[in-house]
Amino acid sequence: MFRLHDVSYTYADSRTGGAALSHVSAEVAQGEFRWLLGPSGAGKSSLLSILSLEVQATSGMVEILGMPVMHARRAALARLRRRIGAVRQDFRLLPDMNVFDNVALPLRLQHRAEAEIRHEVHAIMKWVGLENRLDALPPQLSGGEQQRVAIARAVIYRPDLLVADEPTNALDERQAARLITMFHRLAEMGTTIVVATHNDAIVRRYPAQAIELAHGHMVRDYNG
Amino acid sequence: MARQRYHDGLALRQALPGQFLPFLVAAMAFLAALALAGGLAAHGLSQRWTHGAGAVTTVQVPRPDDAASADSTATPASSRIAAVQAVLSATPAVAASHRLGEDELRALLAPWIEQTGDPALPLPAVIELRTVAGQALPATLMASLQARAPGVMMEHDSVWSDRLAALAGSLQACALLAVLVVTTVAVCVVMAATRAGLLTRRQAIALIHSLGATDSYISGRFATRVGLLALGGGLAGSVLALPMLGVLSWLAAPFGTTGDAPAMDWRDPQAWAAMLPHALLWMLVALPPVAGLAGWTTTQLTVRAWLRRLP
Fold it and tell me: Where is the ABC transporter domain (chain A) (predicted)?
């Protein structure tokens, strides 16, 4: 779960001038699935960055998985990050590590046993349909394949909060449908999920509660 | 496929290559070893000059057993030698005094006594003085001695020993400064190498940071790598310095002993080790771990400061 109260965020680079988010408040319970909607530049990515602890809100109150993060210690934030999965638009795969090692990375940072890591990676890669590309390097993969690797890495450790920024962008319709179905299953198992998209078709096909942003302000928080 | 090679994506073998840093640390350790050796040698000379024969002042008292002159300010003494010894023992700058015995005196004067051929020649009493470190004998001492025992003579060699000790002190300070400069340069090199490594792997660092890696984990990984490279470099520097210091010690041996440089079996490692002072050997042994620890600490601080830019 997470709670935002009167949250604002301004880019550190003053040349951009304006605030990315202004006075946003929202509350999402554990195990809920939430769409995050809005046009480009609405502040969706900034909100996801705050939720994934990649940036810190300029003002307001942010509570993630029960922890107020604004004045939390760095070590506590690091522990909290291990419970959050994130799928970014640029995938953030390490180009000099093969697919297996990219997906195994979160488990290795948690010092899991190598046998367990191998089992988990093979299972998730089979699910995303890339079990034959484990030795490939990210630059050798298509955009859709890279996106699936990034999704596999984000969910392999079953995070309590999962944020995804346009995760269906590079996927075909069938793969996108499989992905959203999997997200709903994860939510049923207790993971709070926020998915940013501007794909109206998929939102209509999988109606759920949504947060809508425009120009950094929250337009509405509604049942889709 | 090298699946086990990069477990956490930091790829430190790429970020901190194993050639550049150990080579520089080895050069720094080599220079530090030379500077430490110079400092130790200067310390040894200072000790010799301060406490050796050169620091002794001798007082000759002719006709030692004659009655001393009357002096209203002092307790009357039965003989000239007793009067002189009383004055010396009352002088605060005198740390110790020793009257040479008959045998010591005859051994000292043997060349001259043998030339005269008269073993019954009346000899003066000779007293050796050592002054308190850093203190000079008072200028009025000679006058006081003359008042109690006219004809007394004083030979004062500590002026030269004091000057030489001051020179040795300057050399020690130079050696310390050289060690400080070498240490500072080594720390700067480690900082620069670490920052270059951080920039090379900033994408991977940002990623594992976002996946929950703590600052201590990331800084520990870098520090362990740099610490080991610095340890290796320090070891190489110490090993390279050993033969050079052995040769320098062999060449400097006549300054520490009497006579020529001792014969040495150049093929015997133990002979090399025996040539070096124990303190220097211990410093050479300590140099690699100190270099490793300095590298580890510098890297920890550098990486932690750099990570502060991440949320």
Answer: 2-224
